[in-house]
What we know:
heterodimer; A: two-stranded antiparallel sheet; 2 strands; 75% helix; B: mainly alpha; Four Helix Bundle (Hemerythrin (Met), subunit A); 69% helix; elongated; oxidoreductase activity (chain B); EC 7.1.1.- (chain B); cell membrane (chain B); NAD (chain B)
Amino acid sequence: MDYTASLYATGAEIGLSIAGLILLLVSAWTGTRYARLVTILAAAALFGAMIFSGHLMAESTAELTGDAFGGLFRADAFAGFAKILIYAATIACLVVTPKFFDARRQYRSEYPVLMLFGAVGMGMMVSAVDLLTLYIGLELSSLASYVLASFARDDMRSSEAGLKYFILGALASGILLYGMSLVYGFAGSTNYLAIRIAFADGFGTGAMFGVVFVLAGLAFKVSAVPFHMWTPDVYEGAPTPVTAFFASAPKVAAVVVLARMALDPFAGQIASWQQIVIFAALASIVVGALGAIGQNSLKRVLAYSSINNVGFILIGLAAASAAGASAMLVYLAIYVPMTIGSFAALLMLRDEDGNALETFDDIAGLVTRRPAIAWSLLLLMFSLAGIPPLFGFWGKFVVFQAAVEADMIALAAIGIAASVIGAFYYLKFVKVMFFDDRTERGIATSPAGHWAVLILAAVIVSPLGYLLTQPLGAWADRAATSLFIPV
Amino acid sequence: MIQTLAFYLFAVLVTASATMVILSRNPVHSVLWLILSFFNAAGLMVLVGAEFIALLLVIVYVGAVAVLFLFVVMMLDIDFSELRAGFMKNFPIGVAIAVVLLTELVLGIGAYRAGALQLGAPTGDAVPIPGRGNIDSLGAVLYTDYLFLFEAAGIILLVAMVGAIVLTHREQKATRGHQNIGKQVRRNPDEATVMKQPEVGAGVEL
């Protein structure tokens, strides 16, 4: 085994781990005094890791796949694309966090350290080409997430969200691990390539059980229906910056892991898992669209919106083609700024006492009070609904195009029909903000970091985002083709 | 000969101490019996040549898990007689679950023996090295092929530790029971006492 090449391929993870360890020491010695500095350094480390992943992605070719540690880890273009998204989302969440906790005097320098270790875990997940690497990466990122969910420990709802996330997450990990042990038992190896070769002539009954359990465990992590029940509760209870993180980076990681799992070790038996993915996709779209209708809490609505979006992403996976995988990545790249922008806007909506405005009643007539936030939210909501001049439309378009190309016209048609139902509550945001009578609660001024994230997200989803379609499509295609290597 | 003797010694002690775990009335005694049974199970593992598992049993189960049990049993005020009260009521359910598990075991092993299950063939990356013990062989795999995952598992433990501290540690500022003598001495009668002239029948508001 060539250690130099292995260390080079895992450079982003190793660099982030070292940064995390050093910052942990800093925070242990200085307490909360330098929490802001630790946050900035953590964001810088993530930025470095992002550049390095981009570099690895640019130089990876079909021959040079960046396999490391004897086939445990692969730094290919697919993983590189996902890592850039994950690190960027984590940076954005770090930028909006300190001000939120400062108001309650709860910010501690362990927060960015946990985010860093979570990012290491997610990087390992998306690069995993062995069940063991996948599981360890998943646990590392989940464990950090459980702590982050209950970080506002004096808040009942935050503690409840953390506990709920922990118990259900542990259950999902157990299901996943059980599936993995079955797959290992029937394939004789934990390596993706070896599993693919072992299953080349079909799954036996036992192996099929393993595959279903693995897919169910991963569906839990991406919060696809029917394993979505935890999402609204956890998203509502967790502190808003943490919710923004949950809805972006870990979701990207889990979706990418699911795609690699379906299209690498199980690629020989597409017909066996395709119907599971199609069901999960359609059910997520419908439940995500219908579930949000009766909600009054904005965070719950956004939670259902994320379930709904996962459904569209899974349509790309159900196509089981390079075009589908590429469409999925494009959708993810558009979904991340949309969702982080929406949560950044929610973070900015707080009254002068620092209480969050979290319901539809609170944002009535927002356009007369804070026009900039209202107009940004309008762009984000129209984009989430997939209304044409905005960038969100492009994501849905490429996904449906991939589905139609793969002869799944019925799937695409049902998806489009359900996205119209989903548009209801995105439009409700706009209706309440622009046409309802204003409430008398004042809104505090927002810190510059929040404005920066919100405006950046709004610019990306605005029609200006279409300037990105060329490079984004090229990179996603490159990433998707690296996934489809012949045995 | 000595192996057979040792086997029966360990086996009898394992079953006897395991029975005592259930039967003893004092939970602390139960945990102590559990430790004895772990030790004897470790002896059995040595006899079959799995010295790594034997060491795991002693170090992890006795050293960590059983001691943790002891802590829990001693520190939490659990009324064990109350827990035991529902025993007869839940007994049928317990038996039913045991029967289900037993049937599953029999069916699973039966299917495997009959050749209905086609297990995968091991790839052979991790065959034991001849002439070395299994601790040696495991270490050779763990610190070379799986070095990356081994280190990552270390970070998982670190995150768990940091998380536990973050969620429970509080700055010790206003704990009760700290006497501030300077503050006590600085008190003067004006702020320490109040004059009240209560009306008859109306209480005193303090």
